[in-house]
Amino acid sequence: MLRQIISQAKKHPSLIPLFIFIGAGGSGAALYVLRLAVFNPDVSWDRKNNPEPWNKLGPNDQYKFYSVNVDYSKLKKEGPDF
Q: Which residues contact 73 (CB under 8 A, 6 or more apart)?
């Protein structure tokens, strides 16, 4: 498959940016899904030792990818401990 892509790129050099952007988009999507699977508190890989990982998050833990106006270091806990 890679040999076919290289041969097409040699025959039609205008396709090179297309291959670059498609590859970068696919890589970015795969890395984002990997980030969600590893760092998201809604995902529990170890149900025996940590069945509810979202209960162990503090109010100053940032788990969003991008936060516009919230400074997580200054937040205080408002609810009870579970």
A: 60
